[in-house]
Amino acid sequence: MIDILSGYTFLIVAFGTVILAFASGVIGTVSVIKGQSLIGDAIGHATFPGIVIAFMLVGIRDTFSLALGALILGIVAFFIIQLITEQSKITLDSALALVLSSFFGLGMALMSFVQGNPNFDGTQGLSDYIFGQAAYMLRSDVYLIIAASILSLLIFALFYQQIKIYIFDPIYSRSIGISNPLMNFMILAITITLIAVGLKAVGAILIVNLLIAPAVIGQLWSNRFFHVLLIAGTTGAAAAFIGTYISTAGDDIATGPAIILVLSAFVVLSLIFSRKGLLRRSIQKRKIGERT
Amino acid sequence: MTPLITVKDLNVAYQEKPALWHVNMSIQENSRTAIVGPNGAGKSTLIKSIMKLIRPVSGKIEIEGRDARHALKRVAYVPQKGEVNWDFPATVLDVVLMGRYVHKGWIKRPNRKDESIALSALETMKMEAFKNRQISELSGGQKQRVFIARAIAQDADIYIMDEPLQGIDITTEKLIIGIMKQLQQEGKTFIVVHHHLDTVEEYFDHVVILNKTVIAEGTIGSAWRKENINRAYYEMSGSHD
């Protein structure tokens, strides 16, 4: 166990997943409060064909090309969702489900095609992007995650005041000259970027959990926006560390599921023990019952 | 006397349905102006146009002779309660501090001075005891007081309020009107979307009667007449729905 913890590979991989989870926890909180958590899910799934298409074009699993492919397909998926909801009577949840499944289906179909095709080499690694396999991350994968996460957090910190006013009261924010479209674009761009760089670590199916679960935990423990962000980032980071460890120590346990299981355990604990949790609420109810 | 705000031939449409047409009106400086009219008359649309939140089909809005865009910092907006995100985790003080943003510029966080301004705004609205309360836990009247405290903390000289007296208790209503009259003494101007016809005379000194277009405007004495009210509420209603 000590071997793994002090191992250079583990440390660098864990640093990558931890900072990714911290940034995702923070930015995911914004989406959750805005009531847009499922958009992250749809985009997460939709990035997968981007990975396969980029691989088909470049011929190798190059970190930057694959992340770029994921990014582009994430953006395309978002615009299709918008187009569907604006131009037709299809509701947002149906549009999300449609885009999520058809894009992911496209990714799976392309992957089977590539894997059965002798012209492509190294196709085995593509499935790592479905569930995430942090142990096989290249150093360049980790560097990209670190760079993208730090950049995302910096942009978020820079626009913190504006974003805060915008999410709480969009009409007031416009009335004092904040550009709502710019805020919305920034939140979305950061979300898609974090998803695109994090696919190798956590996988297309589960990455949304990194955005949503920490936000849910944060909201259960605090009523103040800044504290919610901090709690979300920290619990995401802690779960990423533990999950990466379990995945590296165990044989062939994918990193995504390992991190998500730890996060889910945190969610359950928070639902029971937090200040807005079940335990506290039932105690309060009993107290009220005794008084009356 | 030149008016503070002038609206010139404003036309607004939502998805090709006209919401306001040929609106010409003015708001006098240092007035308490009520905007009244039946449901769907375009009252909210009008105040949002004044704040440049809606792009009109045509028309001009000027504040002291210049395009309203230049004066937005002087305008404090008090939203309708339904317009904000109640899931947002914020305390009462957090919300009032948002009013200080216009004085802070881009990155600067609110400092101690901003906090004391926010606290004294809460005191004015008799809400200082609630400063650490979660905003979503407040009653309708308390929420409205917090939004007005935010406007006071913004230190604007034009207050635009969208139905501030809707769904609140009578104590809060009296408090809001009292504050409005007090701030008027200090030179502020109020533009208020108002629903109750029976209190217009008591609460305001100017009125704009609206139903898609301006039916009448001016001082209470000159414009608040039965025939104007009837034209807005009875003769015109139904003809454009």
TrEMBL record, chain B:
GO terms for molecular function: ATP binding; ATP hydrolysis activity. It comes from the Bacteria. PROSITE patterns: ABC_TRANSPORTER_1, ABC_TRANSPORTER_2. Keywords: ATP-binding, Nucleotide-binding, Transport. Residues 5-237 form the ABC transporter domain. SUPFAM superfamilies: P-loop containing nucleoside triphosphate hydrolases. InterPro entries: AAA+_ATPase (IPR003593), ABC_transporter-like_ATP-bd (IPR003439), ABC_transporter-like_CS (IPR017871), Metal_Ion_Import_ABC (IPR050153), P-loop_NTPase (IPR027417). SMART domains: AAA. Belongs to the ABC transporter superfamily. PANTHER family: IRON TRANSPORT SYSTEM ATP-BINDING PROTEIN HI_0361-RELATED, METAL TRANSPORT SYSTEM ATP-BINDING PROTEIN TM_0124-RELATED. This is Peptide transporter. It comes from Salinicoccus roseus.
